[in-house]
Amino acid sequence: KGDGHVEGEKVENPDTGLYYDEYLRQVIDVLETDKHFREKLQTADIEEIKSGKLSRELDLVSHHVRTRLDELKRQEVARLRMLIKAKMDSVQDTGIDHQALLKQFEHLNHQNPDTFEPKDLDMLIKAVSARYK
């Protein structure tokens, strides 16, 4: 009573300003559905998160969570490809290096576009951390 929050109520977070903000939020939401990972996240300090130690816990989440994360990553890769195509269409330059364009997206492992792995979580954390240094 009096705290204004109802158990299970979603709290709206302000936009981070990151071009992958929606992807970041979706990954966090899915990870928090796994009880073990949620407990690890709540007890981890910022250095454990930034160092990648928390990313290794991804191997322990449920199959359902991993499947949902894989789906989110494929959607994000498709979104980035659409952005690259739009950029290419606007420039009309035929000498564009697609891999070089993908490398500018440091929040996911573009060499493995189909599955969400601990490396993806680590890259996402590092990209966010670098943005807020």
Automatic annotation (TrEMBL):
One of its GO terms (molecular function) is calcium ion binding. GO terms for cellular component: endoplasmic reticulum-Golgi intermediate compartment; extracellular exosome; Golgi apparatus; membrane. Its main location: cytoplasm. Keywords: Cytoplasm, Golgi apparatus, Membrane, Phosphoprotein, Repeat, Secreted, Signal. The keyword Nucleotide-binding does not apply. It comes from the Eukaryota. Residues 7-128 form the NUCB1-like N-terminal domain. The keyword Secreted applies. It is found in: Cytoplasm; Golgi apparatus; Membrane; Secreted. It holds the Pfam family NUCB1_N. PANTHER family: NUCLEOBINDIN, NUCLEOBINDIN-2. This is NUCB2 protein.
